[in-house]
Every structure is written in C-alpha cells, then in structure tokens.
From TrEMBL:
GO terms for cellular component: cytoplasm. It comes from Aphanomyces astaci (Crayfish plague agent). Transmembrane segments: none annotated. Keywords: Metal-binding, Zinc, Zinc-finger. SUPFAM superfamilies: ArfGap/RecO-like zinc finger. Residues 2-123 form the Arf-GAP domain. The keyword Nucleotidyltransferase does not apply. This is Arf-GAP domain-containing protein.
Length: 281
C-alpha cells in the first residue's frame, strides 16, 4: 500500500479525484487499476457499478497491491490526457452537482470513451440526471442518451454474486496450506453489466494468522446489540483496539459497503465495537 500511497502523495494531480476533482488523501483514496487513476469514494462507487470488465477498483489503504498493479498506476494526468482529451470544461465542472451527473459522466468517460474522441466536446449531461439518484439499497438506475446512443442502465447492488470457493489446482501438493481460491459455483447466472471474474484474489488473513492443515472446531456465541434511538454509545473500545488509520479505514468501508466483518481473539470487545459501528449507520 505504501508504494501506491507514495504515488498519490508525491504528485499533486493525484491528490484530486480524476473524475470530480474533489480532494483525496491516501487514507481514503481509491484507484482504478484498469486506467491507473485515483478517485474519491463517491466516484469509486460508480466505477464499481460499471463492473470489473470496465474498471477494477481498489482501496489505496485497505487492499493488498501486487507489484504489477502498482506499476499500472500511471496517475491522473496520464489517464485524463487520453480519457478527457476532448471534454468540455462545463461538463467536467458539473459532475459534482448530482449523483446522476456523476454516474452519467463516468459511464461516458470510461465505458463509452466519449471524451477520447473529438465528438466528446459536444457531449451534454442528460437533464434527467440532475436529480440525485435514489438511495434505496435494492436498486436504482439512470439512463443516458447522447448523439443517438442507446440508453444504458446501470443497476446499483451491494452484492453481485454469491460464490462457493474451493482449493485451486495450482498447489504443489495436497498438504499445501496456501489457499488459491477457485470458484466452484455461483448464483445468480452471469450478469450482463457485471460479469463474474475468471478468478478472484488470494485471500488476505489478519496479521499473524494463517491457514492450518489441522482442523479445529470453531467457537460460536451470540450477543445482543443495543439498537435504541438516543442510547449512549462508547467509541473508546474501537480506538483502543485500532490505530487512527485503521479506524478511518473501517469507517470508509462501512460507509461505502454498509457492512464490515469483525474478527478478534478478544471476544469481550466485539459487542461494544459492533455497537459503535452500528451507531454510525
């Protein structure tokens, strides 16, 4: 992560979102490895809706980066020199005015490559996108029409697929505890706007934890969370267990995905930490 963060810190062009020009910092920045550009959390959500076949999104702070992925990050200036070569300044300036404008602009920029050709100078954001997009978690869509192009519907989902993963075939021997996940089954069938990737990244485990060839029964327990309006919630356990950067990373993940997984050997702190995170929602 530090190599990617350094690319952001060392170049002023990378410290503003490549799409909407909002300021970004290494702790909350996202990146499209497909195009080598840094984006803000709002634009990252639109990129994710485009599907990994168009734009693959990673967190600068939370995700693990390979050397090849770091090398792909040429920066915002290089990406926009091609993708925004013929964009009208007024169109670029309007991206932040509504969620609909943001979605229509990113769709045109990355999926249709509209601004890479001289015809992009005549592009106009659709008036129907001026109103903010629905915040319903089930689904929402926007339609874009320009220069005779057919409408494009982009669905908003929190989950694209449920998959069953298993041991991959690239292991040297059956006792190897390195886990190379292979998709064995999935639901639903392939979505047109978000194709199932041919492979998924290697699993990342918490520090000092690894897979073991020896089976051990899991520990199950239940607890009740306080969910009362106006109840006092103590955030101290969260800051005692995590440093500030990790707290910000959890907050970012929670606000973007609206879900986090809590793993700790200290079972007594899971309840107060879960309550503090729930209070943010």
């Amino acid at each position: 992560m530090s190599r990617v963060a350094n690319k952001l810190r060392e170049n002023a062009d990378n410290q503003a979102c490549a799409d909407c020009s909002q300021p970004v910092t290494a702790s909350v920045a996202w990146a499209t490895t497909t195009f080598g550009a840094f984006v803000c959390i709002q634009c990252a959500g639109v990129h994710r809706n485009l599907g990994v076949k168009i734009s693959r999104i990673k967190s600068v702070h939370m995700d693990t980066w390979s050397a090849d992925e770091v090398a792909l990050m040429k920066g915002n200036r290089a990406a926009n020199a091609v993708l925004e070569k013929h964009v009208a300044p007024a169109v670029k300036a309007a991206v932040n005015q509504s969620d609909g404008f943001r979605a229509a602009y990113i769709q045109a920029k990355y999926a249709a490559k509209t601004f890479a050709s001289p015809d992009g100078a005549a592009f106009q954001l659709p008036p129907t996108a001026a109103a903010p997009l629905s915040s319903s978690p089930s689904s929402s869509s926007f339609s874009k029409r320009n220069n005779g192009m057919s409408s494009v519907d982009v669905a908003k989902r929190f989950v694209n697929y449920f998959v069953v993963v298993g041991r991959g075939s690239s292991l040297k021997h059956t006792g190897d505890i390195q886990f190379q996940p292979t998709i064995l089954d999935s639901y639903p069938e392939t979505l047109a706007d978000a194709p199932l990737p041919p492979h998924i990244a290697q699993f990342a485990f918490p520090e000092r934890l690894t897979l073991s060839a020896t089976f051990r029964e899991p520990t199950f327990f239940s607890f009740v969370l306080t969910n009362v309006s106006g109840a006092k919630v103590n955030f101290r356990p969260l800051f005692q267990m995590l440093d500030l950067n990790n707290v910000l990373a959890v907050f970012t993940c929670l606000l973007l995905e609206q879900k986090v997984a809590l793993c700790s050997k200290h079972l007594s702190v899971l309840t107060p930490i879960a309550e503090s995170l729930q209070a943010l929602l």
